[in-house]
Design a protein that fits this description.
Oligomer: heterodimer
Strand order of the largest sheet of chain A: 2-1-5-3-4
CATH class of the largest domain in chain A: Alpha Beta
Keywords (chain B): Oxidoreductase
CATH topology of the largest domain in chain A: Ubiquitin-like (UB roll)
Organism (chain B): Desulfopila aestuarii DSM 18488
InterPro entries (chain B): Cys_rich_dom, HdrB/HdrD_reductase
Order of helices and strands of chain B: EHHEHEHHEHHEHEHHEHHEHH
Largest interface: A-B, 19 and 17 residues
Order of helices and strands of chain A: EEHEEEHHHHHHHHH
Bound molecules: FE2/S2 (inorganic) cluster
Radius of gyration of chain A: 25 Å
CATH architecture of the largest domain in chain B: 3-Layer(aba) Sandwich
Strand order of the largest sheet of chain B: 2-1-3-4
Shape of chain B: globular
Number of domains of chain B: 2
Number of helices of chain B: 14
Shape of chain A: flat
Number of strands of chain A: 5
Structural class of chain A: alpha+beta
CATH class of the largest domain in chain B: Alpha Beta
Domain Cysteine-rich (chain B): 4-85, 148-235
Number of strands of chain B: 8
Protein name (chain B): Heterodisulfide reductase subunit B
Helix content of chain B: 40-55%
Largest sheet of chain A: 5 strands, mixed
Radius of gyration of chain B: 19 Å
Strand content of chain A: 5-15%
């Protein structure tokens, strides 16, 4: 049910200023109490409180995985996980950042390996220490079914592992919780790479285009442009044919189609 | 008829031959096989430490998956998977204190109290198809093939989850006889194959697998049938080495019982993936006219 009388909890952009009329709430960062505007994300709230992120923040858009946070709500035994740049603060949150969690990544040469599950098993034998406790899945801020992809790898199903783990942003929270000490996210990355290289059929048009480029189709054009005088190049740029703004996709073609 | 099926990790990798032949056979018998969604490792070996509940979580989670997906029975095939799942299920049915602890630990799942029944493939065949009906479905009888029913350790032990009483081999015998084979009793049908011991060392003088093969060969058995990838590893994969080191007198071709079933039902030999059996002799099957469909 939607309670419309409550102030909606939305993040207010990327500047840590107190929005007009915003209430402040107490949060506890590494055990110390701070009053912060209730509309901020954890990351902005920490900056509001005076912290500066030199590491542990990157895209601020929920995709780089640099800002995992672990928190508990006062009085509740449950551990919660989120991305500091995405999760809005709540009153009486006890939180800490885990910007990095050590997990060994196996080194491999993708071109030299075989596209079979045994390759993953050999590089990450820890996978077989899994007891299916599911703490990894509970820890994932991206709601990835981590136990599902670990199981898929053990079952030799690389495609399934690649697809289930697709949303992984490599934050490492799964590994931080694993009682089998498995580096899940590194193993999943390997599964996706093997899937893309050896299992997923290659797109014909992409293969053909790469062949054309490598075959030198565009080299004369580039040579011509790089041999031009600056003024001529500028004039050519200004006079260039442009796709009209807001043209419906696939409706526009240049007059000269010989380069397509 | 539709059944919920738990394959297990090995049946998806090294023991595809056990799995594929089983599924194809059930389909030929008109049974729709539905693999449960989102299953994980069964735990492989049932933990005997009384308070080691964390190792119950894996098998119980699979049973929860089955319950969640509306199954009252979960059919499984690998002897090890059957054993861990059935024993974990028994614990959840009988030990209320441990059940409660496990349910509370798995607070991300629905509660479980043993509502699903774990059924071995052989029991399923007997109960739901029956040997008479199976016999009628046979297209290429395994006539003249002398088979030994190799049960190994975990199909019958412990007694309260065993698929049949210890020392009797009625289920596999019933199936094989329905397929037209001659079942030859031998004294090593429930002896240990050597389990995981082989991983730590070369086959040794008193190799358990060698003893089983020698006893089977001595009894006049031409083919061993098993339900367990670990048994197959010890008896089948190691057989060449045992022969080279003169630990066994003569080879005894080793098959999964589902491969023999599939052949007798007239299915293409391809579904049996014999390329994965190191000690399965196609010559033997040909000479007994068991490869009719091929
Ligand atoms: S900063 Fe990139 S995910 Fe949060």
């Amino acid at each position: 049910m939607c309670d419309t009388t409550k102030t909606p909890k939305v993040a207010t952009g990327d500047r840590a200023i107190l929005p007009e009329g915003a209430r402040t709430i107490p949060i506890f960062v590494m055990g110390k109490k701070y009053e912060v505007p209730e509309t901020l994300t954890i990351m902005k709230a920490m900056e509001f409180a005076g912290f500066r992120f030199l590491r542990g923040a990157g895209c601020r858009g929920g995709i780089c995985g640099a800002c995992p946070t672990v928190y508990r709500m006062a009085g509740d035994y449950k551990l919660h996980f989120g991305l500091a740049c995405q999760t809005v603060v709540e009153a009486n949150m006890y939180l800490a950042q885990i910007p990095f969690f050590p997990a060994n990544r196996a080194s491999f040469k993708l071109e030299e390996m075989e596209g079979v599950a045994e390759t993953i098993h050999a590089l990450y034998p820890e996978l077989f220490r899994c007891v299916a406790c599911n703490l990894c899945t509970k820890a994932c801020p991206m709601d990835v079914d981590v136990l599902g992809y670990v199981s898929a790898m053990k079952q030799g199903n690389i495609e399934k592992a690649a697809r289930i783990s697709f949303d992984c942003i490599q934050c490492g929270l799964c590994a931080s919780r694993c009682m089998g000490e498995i580096p899940q996210y590194h193993a999943a990355q390997l599964a996706r790479r093997i899937f893309a290289r050896y299992i997923q059929p290659q797109a014909e048009h992409l293969k053909n285009r790469v062949m054309e480029i490598e075959g030198g189709k565009y080299d004369p054009m580039l040579d011509e442009l790089s041999g031009m005088k600056k003024e001529d190049l500028e004039a050519r740029y200004v006079a260039r044919e442009r796709e009209p703004d807001l043209a419906a996709a696939g409706t526009w073609q240049p007059k000269d189609t010989s380069h397509l | 008829m539709k059944i919920s099926y738990y394959p297990g990790c090995t049946l998806k990798t090294k023991a595809k031959n056990l799995d594929r032949a089983a599924i194809a056979s059930l389909e030929a018998l008109g049974v729709e096989v539905e693999e449960i969604d989102r299953w994980n490792c069964c735990g492989a070996v049932y933990s005997l430490t009384a308070d080691d509940l964390i190792h119950m979580v894996g098998p119980v989670r699979n049973l929860i998956r089955a319950k969640e997906q509306g199954a009252d029975k979960l059919v499984t095939l690998c002897s090890m998977c059957y054993n861990t799942l059935a024993r974990a299920n028994q614990l959840m049915r009988e030990d209320t204190v441990k059940r409660d602890t496990i349910n509370r630990f798995m607070d991300d799942e629905i509660d479980y109290a043993g509502e699903v029944e774990v059924v071995h493939y052989l029991s399923f065949l007997e109960q739901e198809i029956g040997w008479e009906k199976l016999k009628e479905a046979v297209k290429a009888p395994l006539s003249d093939l002398k088979v030994g029913t190799y049960y190994g350790c975990t199909l019958q032990r412990p007694a309260d989850v065993g698929i049949e009483p210890f020392g009797s081999y009625l289920l596999m015998t019933g199936m094989l006889e329905a397929l037209g084979a001659t079942v030859v009793p031998f004294a090593a049908a429930d002896k240990c194959c050597g389990s995981y011991q082989v991983l730590g060392a070369e086959p040794v003088e008193n190799s358990a697998a060698a003893a089983v093969i020698n006893i089977a060969g001595g009894a006049g058995i031409e083919a061993l049938a098993t339900s367990c990838p670990l048994c197959e590893y010890n008896l089948g994969k190691q057989q060449k080495q045992l022969l080279a080191k003169e630990k066994i007198g003569a080879p005894v071709p080793t098959y999964y019982f589902t491969q023999l079933l599939a052949l007798a039902l007239g299915l293409e030999a391809e579904v049996c993936h014999f390329e994965l059996n190191d000690a399965a002799s196609l010559e033997l099957l040909k000479s007994k006219n068991c490869l009719a469909a091929a």
